[in-house]
Amino acid sequence: MTEPLTQSPPAPATDDGPPPPARRHRVRAALRHLPHRLRSLPPWSPLAAGVLVGGLLGAGYGLVATPQYTATSYVVAVPE
Questions:
Q1: What confidence tens digit (pLDDT) does each residue in 25-44 have?
Q2: Handedness of CA 54, 57, 62, 65 (dihedral sign)
Q3: Residue 42 half-sphere exposure toward CB, CA atoms < 13 A
Q4: How far apart are CA 45 and CA 35, in angstroms?
Q5: In whole angstroms, what is the distance from residue 52 CA to residue 45 CA?
Q6: How far is CA 50 from the centre of its chain?
Q7: In the prediction, which pLDDT does 27 show?
Q8: Helix extents (H) in 1-80
Q9: If DSSP codes are grouped into helix, strand and coil, which group holds residue 34?
Q10: Residue 80 and residue 19: Cα distance in Å, rounded?
Q11: Closest CA to 22 of 30, 34, 10
Q12: Using alpha carbons only, how large is the chain's radius of gyration in Å?
């Protein structure tokens, strides 16, 4: 019913060499258009990016830093 394999399966391809020329061309084309795309962003976009990056950094610090607890108490004595 089934025939035995006459060839071993092909070895998995490894991507150790430099990227193919087509990929390099696409990367260069994307980088060439980057300055125009950055100029076309709204003027408030650096502010939004800064808020986003600051929030992510603050959240990361809050999750990683060792918590430090402090407490302040006051005693008020009223003479009778």
A1: 888 888 888 888 778 889 99
A2: negative
A3: 5
A4: 15
A5: 10
A6: 14
A7: 84
A8: 21-39, 45-64
A9: helix
A10: 87
A11: 30
A12: 30
Token pair listed for 67: 């918590």
Rounded CA-CA distance 58/62 in Å is 6
Going from the C-alpha of 60 to that of each of 17, 31, 56, 65, the distances in angstroms are 36, 30, 6, 8
pLDDT digits (tens, 9 = 90+) for 8-21: 767 766 666 666 66
Give the distance from CA 25 to its chain's centroid. Answer: 25
Residue for token pair 């035995």: 4
Tokens 């092909």, located at residue: 10
- The residue type of 19 is P
- The letter for the amino acid at 40 is S
Confidence of residue 75 (pLDDT cuts 50, 70, 90): very high
